[in-house]
Specification:
14 strands, 213 residues, 8-stranded mixed beta sheet, Metallo-beta-lactamase, Chain A, mainly beta, 6-stranded mixed beta sheet
């Protein structure tokens, strides 16, 4: 299977079925648009930098943007309600956290998570192998809280997202603080723009995969 990063919170996960998370249109945030057609699009919330479904829509694309349990083409998806801030959504509203399973690997995309996770959210998300976690602060959790979330979820791989990259027009922080806060026992791997792997290739201990455009 393959993971490819299209910048910000937009990832393409594919292995027969192509799942795209929080698509942007590129020009609105100053980076190249995603160049992919999705079978399934997961939209964590309706803000402009995460909900440009038209940018990745194919002929038979299914869009999931609400909490609940769904199935599509052998793909199992669980949407868990959460918040874009740490005051119960009063500042930035609600979001949906998405867990999905593909070829035996369980992924979790945390969207624009604004707080650490509570026990109910963790229980509904279940076991996670690969976690996409925002780290850029300002509109999401910061590096310190991102690590608290990673430890509470306990994945095999953590992939940082929603941080400042060259050209990005959003005033958020870079990935540096998250990487610098990693425990000495955590392997940090720069994987380029995409990663191809099988279930058995996943590490036995926590690893951080840092993607680039």
């Amino acid at each position: 299977m393959r993971i490819r990063w299209h910048g910000h919170s937009c990832f393409e996960v594919s292995d027969g079925v192509t799942v795209v998370t929080d698509p942007h249109d590129g020009k609105s945030i100053g980076i190249p648009p995603p160049r992919v057609k999705a079978d399934v699009v997961l939209v964590s919330h309706s803000h402009f930098d995460s909900s440009s479904v038209r940018s990745v829509r194919g002929q038979n694309t299914r869009v999931f943007d609400k909490a609940g349990r769904f199935a599509e083409g052998g793909l199992e998806v669980t949407g868990v309600p959460s918040f874009h801030d740490d005051v119960g959504g009063q500042k930035r509203g609600a979001i949906v956290l998405f867990a999905f399973k593909m070829e035996g690997v369980r992924f979790c995309h945390l969207g624009d998570l604004g707080s650490t996770l509570v026990e109910k959210e963790l229980a509904e998300l279940g076991e996670v192998d690969v976690l996409f976690v925002p780290v850029g602060d300002i509109f999401t959790i910061d590096a310190i809280r991102a690590w608290q979330v990673v430890r509470s979820v306990n994945p095999l791989v953590a992939i940082p997202m929603h941080y400042r990259t060259p050209g990005l027009s959003l005033s958020i922080k870079t990935v540096d603080a998250f990487i610098e806060s990693a425990d000495d026992r955590v392997e940090v791997v720069n994987v380029g723009n995409e990663m191809v792997f099988d279930r058995e290739d996943l590490p036995e201990e926590l690893s951080v995969w840092v993607f680039s455009l």
